[in-house]
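Morning!

This is the sequence you dropped in the shared folder:
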Amino acid sequence: MLNQPQWTDRQTRHRQLDAHVEATQRATFGFREMPAAEKAGQVMDHFDKVAPRYDFMNNLLSFGIQTAWKRQAIRLLRLEPGQLVLDVCGGTGDLALLAARHTAPDGRVLVYDLNRRMLAAGMPKAARAGLSSRIACVQGDAERIALPDTVCDAAMVGFGIRNLTHLEKGFREMYRVLKPGGRFLCLEFSKPVNPVFRSLYDFYSFHIMPLAGQLMVGNRRGYVCLPETIRLFPLPDELSAILSDIGFSDVTFRRMTNGIAVAHVATKR
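The structure's back. Tokens below.
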């Protein structure tokens, strides 16, 4: 089997955390290092390029299983009718659409994302589902959420927190806007548990996915960056500790598909 980058060690993963970014004023997007002030622009450029076929590529590269991950994660959030839900880094709104069905008929979901093209790509889906009146989109920075304190019943982020310059700042902002007792969800990619399955996944990630990106959307680099960011992200136990330190209680996680995806759920004290 061809060589592919290995999963990073704990020390390397911890370099993605806010303290290291602040101390060095350096950040990474994938394995590329850059001045911290430049990362948001790099992320914006990446999603400008992938937005038109983002949903298509997600379904293609995950063989459609990403929909099952999102449905299971939303069930773990235990949403109720009438609640206000914040979907941070919400992109094209897949999680928001699922959440809106649980909070119907009077609930609202706010999709919050820095990239206008991603939000625009998701709006027609809400219209087709008849949920436009229950879902609102706001372009904004997840590290500075433009909402008052303690207004949301639930906050969630799916496959997007890795792209922030200051990971913990994003989590703290979600904690801030939650009501006491509010529920939190973070759905993210992670490290497969089984070594054999992990080796196959690594080959797929670094050889098949970039090739598909090149053939389908003419963007090989974007689909190299994706598996790189996954390998720099904290593992489930590390992320659980981060969330607990921020102030969340009852922090638990559930692995899906041998740990390719992990849903963390927690409660604001």
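Headline: The chain has a mean pLDDT of 95.

More detail when I'm at my desk.
O.
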